[in-house]
From TrEMBL:
An annotated GO cellular component: cytosol
Protein name listed in UniProt: DNA ligase
SUPFAM superfamilies per UniProt: BRCT domain, DNA ligase/mRNA capping enzyme, catalytic domain, Nucleic acid-binding proteins, RuvA domain 2-like
Family matches, as HAMAP family: DNA_ligase_A (MF_01588)
Keyword check for Cytoplasm: no
UniProt organism field: Algisphaera agarilytica
Active site location: K133 (n6-amp-lysine intermediate)
Length: 743
């Protein structure tokens, strides 16, 4: 059955949301939702796509590894892709997976051990190996003749960032492979010619807590979990600034070239043992198992132990042990088929909810924040939890005075899971929410669950259709069951719509000066509050006037000459960060760091961007219509224009370097052509090809329209190809492209 309009819409919404959360998680290192919630949304989209394959788009978050390369680093293609891992939170699903894949293996390796008997010197084909899943950042290390030559991040899975210089500071990673002293000379394995090791770089709990304590003191935003702080610190351009004390554990293989392998290219456990011999840290707690029951025992056993470890683990990775089996099973676009992660349920604790306070965020969103009696949970003492929104409070009926169950899913900010009703004291009051912004008094706007709103829209359209039909036939319209009326329980957010709201302004400033935007270190959260309270910061442009207000600043508490010098210098430096980072800092809805970069590079300066029409913005690769519209609105409304003027006056650099374009010499077949790329190309990375075509004078855009001149379609091209064909656009395959490109 084809997908209904509502399902199509839902799939689109889910894709947008998941893209946004991926960006928040990987690029900005500042997730808004827990992993569990993220995984539930992803699962919903997967199920929709499975049921209606026509909903599947090549860029769907179900098909791609979530990360993206970091700006300012050299991006390098992976020799072997670095993929994500499918996960489950249920024992039943884990069992089913082991059985199902086990059967498949049985077909391919019929005489070969395991469930199906056999007698090779290899272990059974269905043998499993289990390793704890440390919550860190994936890293690929390349050793040539035993010397570390390259360290790459996972990036988008096909290409990552070269962070070798930062890795040199990590003591846990050997710069040279050397058999560990404990290994008998006779058992020493030769150093491979090339060895690529994949592993996890992570921040031990103690280091994480130290870092966050320091950040709190400095008034900087806290890292949500050790994984975010690791990702954050590895992005430093200056190795001296990389946080000390990172650790590493090896858990996978990339390229392997070696004369003698000593069996380490045959099974994962032997591979790990060899790595250990060579001086690379590997898991102590791994186990080889033969059956699903054995595997589960280890999963359960480790759940006890993991809380005593000095680093955060969030699951267990279950792999088929033999590499020939892994190779036979192969991979999907996003994850291997020979591996699954079982994720542990988050730890929970009970405590009493003392107060609820409404905070105004940088977009004007009002968020209820709970203060609770302090309770120890998953390694830290917790006093605050996010309650998300009023609808959520109503749905869970969360009242002040209640005993609540809280959890830290993925170590993010704690969440209130439910109320312990048996412990509810008498006379509690149902939750309430402010009708006006607690900061500026503007009446709030209420947002309802988009899925429910759509339900109502679909209903209204159906009713109209039936009415029209009935009129024609002069009959009574058919009755259509109306959906549940929208009510307070459907509320998903409240907003203060006042663009001048001082609370929003402060939050926007905090964002503007953040690490990935203007990066003004000396202007921390506390300083911003102080300056704003003193009336020295009332609009964005004021930041760049602060050097003229030296005396006023010095008069404030805890301000010394040195500090003011730093502040003024920091602000001066920030003027040169370029358009992409300015845009990213302006809190334009849906326009984050990566989107800003695309816009800035495509147009080169702010005036060209303002002059662009909506269609041009939408046509950019990797830009969705919602994002384009949002930027367009910002650039063309009064507030946005005002902000841009202020920045211009302050002398902020509003230009961005563009990829070089050679003047079309006329003899290039691509000169002046509008080209769209789709599908998988064998000989090119998408972005490299794009850059290449652009230097040949082509304009490469993201969506096919009647103005498109050529669609270059690789393997498994989807909807763009169909559309191009229906519009009669010229379609080239990769062979044609190769012929037409100059040497
Ligand atoms: N909260 C959010 O907004 C948000 C957004 C995006 C992703 N996420 C979360 O991130 C996860 C998806 O991220 P992902 O694609 O990086 O997957 P993942 O981190 O869950 O699993 C894949 C990674 O596990 C690591 N790993 C650790 N131990 C390993 C071992 N022993 N063997 C093999 N690999 C091991 C590898 O580095 C690999 O890259 C999901 O759990 C999702 O919930 C959350
Ligand atoms: Zn307000």
């Amino acid at each position: 059955m084809p997908a209904t309009a509502a399902q199509q819409q839902r799939a689109a919404t889910l894709r947008d949301e998941l893209h946004r959360h991926n960006r928040l998680y990987y690029t900005d290192a500042a997730p808004e939702i827990s992993d569990r919630e993220f995984d539930e949304l992803l699962r919903e989209l997967q199920d929709l796509e499975a049921e209606h394959p026509e909903l599947l788009t090549p860029d769907s978050p179900t098909q791609r590894v979530g990360g993206a390369p970091i700006e300012g680093f050299v991006t390098v293609a992976h020799t072997v892709p670095m993929l994500s891992i499918d996960n489950t939170y249920s024992k039943e699903e884990l069992d089913t997976w082991i059985t199902r894949v086990g059967k498949e293996i049985g077909k391919d390796f019929p005489d070969d051990g395991g469930l199906f008997g056999g007698d090779s010197d290899q272990p059974p084909a269905t043998q499993l190996i289990l390793e704890p899943k440390i919550d860190g950042v994936a890293l690929s290390l390349r050793y040539e003749n035993g010397v570390l030559t390259q360290a790459l991040t996972r990036g988008d899975g096909t290409k990552g960032d070269d962070i070798t210089h930062n890795i040199n500071t990590v003591n846990a990673i050997p710069l040279r492979l050397e058999p560990s002293p404990g290994v008998r000379a006779s058992a020493r394995m030769p150093i491979p010619d090339v060895l690529e090791v994949r592993g996890e770089i992570y921040m031990p709990n103690a280091v994480f807590e130290r870092v966050n304590a320091q950040r709190e003191q400095d008034g900087l935003e806290l890292f949500a979990n050790p994984r975010n702080s690791t990702a954050g610190t590895l992005k430093q351009k200056d190795p001296a600034k990389v946080i000390r004390g990172l650790a590493f554990i090896a858990h996978g293989r990339g390229v392997l070239e070696s004369e003698t392998t000593d069996g380490f290219d045959q099974t994962h456990d032997r591979f790990l043992a060899s790595l250990k011999q060579l001086g690379l840290p590997t898991h102590e707690d791994f186990r080889v198992c033969e059956t699903a029951d054995e595997a589960w025992d280890f999963v359960a056993e480790f759940d006890e132990k993991r809380h005593t470890l000095p680093y955060a683990t969030d699951g267990m990775v279950i792999k088929f042990n033999r590499y020939d089996v892994q190779d036979k099973l192969g991979t999907r676009s996003k994850s291997p088929r020979w591996c699954i992660a079982y994720k542990y349920a988050a730890e929970q604790a009970q405590t009493v909810l003392e107060t609820v306070e409404w905070q105004v965020g940088k977009t004007g969103k009002l968020t209820p924040r709970a203060t609770m009696s302090p309770v120890f949970l998953a390694g830290t003492t917790v006093t605050h939890a996010s309650l998300h929104n009023f609808g959520e409070m109503l749905r869970k009926d969360i009242r002040v005075g209640d005993t609540v169950v809280i959890e830290k899913a993925g170590e993010i900010i704690p969440q209130v899971v439910r109320v312990v009703l048996e412990k509810r004291p008498k006379n509690t009051q149902p939750p309430t929410a402010p009708d006006r912004c607690p900061e500026c008094g503007t009446p709030v706007q209420i947002e309802m669950d988009s899925r429910r709103v759509q339900e109502h829209e679909v209903y209204a359209r159906k009713v109209e259709r039936e009415k029209a039909k009935a009129e024609k036939l002069a009959a009574k319209p058919k009755h259509i069951e109306p959906p549940e009326p929208l009510g307070p329980l459907d509320e998903t957010a409240r907003y203060c719509p006042n663009p001048e709201c001082p609370a929003q302004f402060r939050e926007r400033l905090i964002h503007f000066v953040g690490r990935n935007q203007m990066d003004i270190d000396a202007l921390g959260e506390k300083t911003i509050h102080q300056l704003a309270d003193a009336g020295l910061l009332t609009n964005l442009g004021d930041i760049f006037q602060l050097h003229e207000k030296r005396e006023d600043i010095l008069a404030l508490e805890r301000m010394a000459e040195k500090k003011v010098d730093n502040l003024v210098q920091g602000i001066e430096d920030a003027k040169g960060r370029g358009l992409a980072r300015v845009l990213a800092g302006l809190t334009i809805r849906h326009v984050g760091n990566s989107g800003s970069r695309v816009f800035a590079r495509a147009f080169g300066n702010v005036d060209a961007l303002v002059a662009a029409d909506l269609e041009q913005l939408e046509a950019l690769e990797d830009v969705g219509p919602i994002t384009a519209q949002s930027l367009y609105d910002f650039l063309h409304n009064e507030t946005g224009q005002h902000v841009i003027d202020e920045l211009k006056q302050a002398g902020v650099d509003l230009t961005e370097e563009q990829p070089a374009v050679v003047e079309s010499s006329g003899d290039s077949p691509f000169a002046g052509k509008k080209i769209v790329l789709t599908g998988t190309l064998e000989h090119f990375k998408r972005n490299d090809l794009k850059a290449k075509l652009e230097t040949l004078g082509a304009k490469v855009s993201g969506s096919v329209s009647k103005n498109t001149d050529i669609l270059i379609a690789g393997e498994s091209a989807g909807s763009k190809l169909t559309k191009a064909e229906s519009l009669g656009v010229e379609v080239w395959n990769e062979a044609q492209l190769l012929k037409s490109l100059p040497e």
